[in-house]
Amino acid sequence: SKLTSLGQLEMTWRSRVHFHPLLVRVLHKSRLRYYGKPEKKMDMPYQAYFEVADGSGMMSMVLWNSLCPEWYNSMKVGTVLLLEQYAIKTSYPFKTQPTPGDSQMKRFATIEISLNVRDPPTKISIIPEEMVKPEWGLPEVKYRFITRSELDDLPNNHSCDVIGLVTFVGRAERARKREHGEDFWLYRWAHAIDGTSDQPFILELFATSQPDVFERIHPMTYLVCTQMRVVRDLTENPSSTIYLTTSNESQIFITGWHKGQPYTKDTKVKNFIQWTKTQSEADQMKKTVIGGYYPFPRPPNNFLKY
C-alpha cells in the first residue's frame, strides 16, 4: 500500500484528516501508566508511550485505554509495526524523553501518533522480523552499554545500558510517591559485576511494567538494564555513592528473557558473555547474597556527621 514517513507527516499533518499507513520500528517503550480517578468512570484508563522510528527520524506514539492490555506486551523494543487509521496530535510537552542510542537520529518533537479504539479505530499489525525487508530502511535498535570500569567517569544523570552477573539482590521495598499520599513506588537494590572492576554496579530497580522479571531477579542471573540514569552524590565523596537508577523507559531482562532481544548483537554484551565463560560458577556462588536490609547511600561512620 502507499506508505507515508514520519518526516512527511510532520510537514503535512495540519492539512490532512486521513493519513497513509506508517511502517515503523519501536526503539523505546515507557512503563504503563494508570490515570484512573475515582470520580471519572472510565473502563480502562491506561496509557503507554513508545518512541518509534523509520528512515526519516523518530517520533512518540501513544497507546490509549483498552488498546494497552491488548497490545502493550506485544510491542517490544525492536518490534516492527504497520499502523493504519491513526490520529496525529500536538505533543504533550511534559513527558519524559529517553536518550536515543543513535545520537544522529532526527527527532520530531512537535507531534505524536495517537492510537485509539475509536475516532479513528486504529488498525495495528506486527510484522515478523523475518519478513522485514532491508529496502524499507528501518533503523536498527542501538544501545549505549557501559562497563563498570567506565562508570566512575560518567556525569550525574547520564543515560546508559548495563549488563552484569547478579551477586546481590535485596528485598522489595516501598517508598511513598508523595509525602502524604497513599501511592507507593516499589523498588529493590541489586549488585551486578562484569569483570572490568572490583566494584559492582549498584542498581536501584523500580518495578517497571514487567512484574514477571522484577520478581525473579536472583543471584547468578545475567541482568540487562536499559535506559538507566547515573546518580552521584556530588557533596561528599562522589566515587563512593555512585549508583544507577531506572527511568520511565527502562527495560529489565534476566536469564530466560534474553533470546531474540536486539542487544544480543552488541559488542559489550558479547564481551561480557566471553568473560562469564572464564568464571567458576562455584566461586561466584560463594560471594552471592540475597534479601536483608540494604541502607544506601551508606550513613556516615560516626554519629556527629550523621
TrEMBL record:
Pfam families: RADX
Signal peptide: none
SUPFAM superfamilies named in the record: Nucleic acid-binding proteins
GO molecular function: single-stranded DNA binding
Designated name of the protein: RADX protein
